[in-house]
Amino acid sequence: MRCAAGVIVDDDGRVFIQRRSPTRKLFPDTWDIVGGHLEPGESVEEALYREVTEETGWHVSIVLGTIAELRYRGNDGFERLETDFLIRVDGDLARPRLEAGKHTAFRWITRDELDVFDDQQDMDGGLLRRVVEGGFDLLRQIGL
Predict the structure, then answer these.
(1) Would you say 5 and 84 are in contact if contact means Cβ atoms under 8 Å apart?
(2) Residues 33 and 6 sit within 8 Å (Cβ to Cβ)
(3) Among 6, 66, 83, 93, which one is least packed by beta carbons within 10 Å?
(4) Looking at the 3D structure of the chain, how many domains does it have?
């Protein structure tokens, strides 16, 4: 399965995360970034733009760079190839429109708050922490 995901950063250098619903099959009740599977005929970039709008109501304004491309096997048994991007968005950043039934909460975190992912280590093997940490690293590399 091919996936695209975005680490959304705000003007203060914080990263947006959202809590997956406890009823989700893949990584239930864990913190996550915006993203999902490509639809038939869709490019990685098209999927990224679509997923951001579907999951938050925001629109990608700029792709700052690629964080990583990684393979992982979800707790559902399926292998995925995911491309993770560092992005900025347009919209009311205080009021995302979380996708009903899929996400239950959101927050903005700083690099010092990466431990928010520690309680899901057993489920995702530290995957989300590494991706978000890579986003913070890329942000520093490009001088923002």
Answers:
(1) yes
(2) yes
(3) 66
(4) 1
Q: What is the per-residue pLDDT across 85-107, written as a single tens digit (0 to 9) for each?
A: 999 999 999 999 999 899 999 99
- Asked whether the beta carbons of 51 and 6 are under 8 A apart, the reply is yes
Q: Are 118 and 39 in contact (CB under 8 A)?
A: no
Tokens standing for residue 72: 């992982």
Q: Which domain holds residue 38?
A: 2-141
In the predicted model, what is the mean pLDDT of residues 69-93? Answer: 93
Adjacent-strand bridge partners of 9: 15
**Rounded Cα distance, 16 and 108, in Å:** 5
Both tokens assigned to 47: 């999927």
DSSP code of 33? Answer: -
DSSP annotation of 120: G
Note whether 40 and 48 are within 8 A (CB): no
Residue 20 is which amino acid?
Answer: R
What pTM was estimated for this model as a whole? Answer: 0.94
Contact 14, 108 (CB under 8 A): yes
The neighbouring-strand residues paired with 108 are 16
Calpha distance 63→89 (Å, rounded): 9
